Amino acid sequence: MENNTDSISLVELCKAFKKNLGIIIIIVCGSLVASFVFTILTPKKYIATATVLSPEMEQQSGKSSMIGGYLGAAVSDMFGGNYSTNVVLSMLKSRKMGEAIINKFNLKDILYTQSTESALSFLSGAATFVVTKEKSINISIESKDPQLSADIANYYVSYLDVMNNELLITTAKPVVRILDRAVPPEHKSKPSLSKNMSIALVVSMVIGFFFVYLKELIRRNNEKAK
After folding, report:
1. What is the rounded CA–CA span in Å between residue 47 and residue 152?
2. What CATH class does 46-180 carry?
């Protein structure tokens, strides 16, 4: 009965890994060094977050306290539901808001561009608006300057009332209640050295093991051909 020479047994694979351990170490160390250098050279970014509460939440709270439980939530939905939140999000994401921020902070000069579209594209990627389960809205800005991140996040909040006064979008004044103003973050959000090094370690080990396996497979096939 012939042995199956096309497959590699676990014992043979372990021997191959041991024999080529130096190559695996070189691949892993090279990847870790490359990841370290990449992380160090990558510009740091900082996220600042302002948290606001929609006016509707005060109304919902009052109705819920009078009626209670699920019935209160149902009546709240009948009288507007998430209307105020949706309006606020639309205002935050509007082009008018974006252009106001670009002009306020001279983002074109900071980004070295004369294109409003390029500045708007940057702002779209830098800003995130998240409605939490508590129905508050987190306005987060990520940039290379921690102070700029905080200033832009806070300006998003203050300009809501300016927009509302011009366009008469809602009768609610102020449009939102500020829970927490954005402050300049002390720690960077990106890049993460530990995260990048962990990814580099795992990927390089997989590549190293695959290289050894492929090398051993080719060697066995060559021996078989002889």
Report:
1. 11
2. alpha beta
3-state secondary structure of 143: strand
Give the integer Cα–Cα distance in Å for 126 and 139: 11
* Cβ atoms of 121 and 103 closer than 8 Å: no
The alpha carbon dihedral of 115, 118, 119, 124 has a sign of: positive
Evaluated on CA atoms 197, 203, 208, 211, the torsion sign reads negative
Alpha helices in 127-226 (DSSP H): 146-167, 193-225
Domain ranges of the chain: 10-42+192-225, 46-180
Mean pLDDT over each residue of the chain, to the nearest integer: 82
How do strand 46-53 and strand 127-131 relate by DSSP bridges? unpaired
Task: Specify the higher pLDDT residue, 31 or 82.
Answer: 31
Average pLDDT value for residue range 45-67: 70
User: 111-122 pLDDT, tens per residue?
Assistant: 999 999 999 999
Do residues 36 and 198 make contact, with C-beta atoms less than 8 angstroms apart? no
Give residue 116's pLDDT. 94
Residue 131: what are its φ and ψ, rounded to 5°? -90, 120
Instruction: Give me the residue label for tokens 């708007």.
Output: 120
DSSP 94: S
pLDDT of residue 120: 96
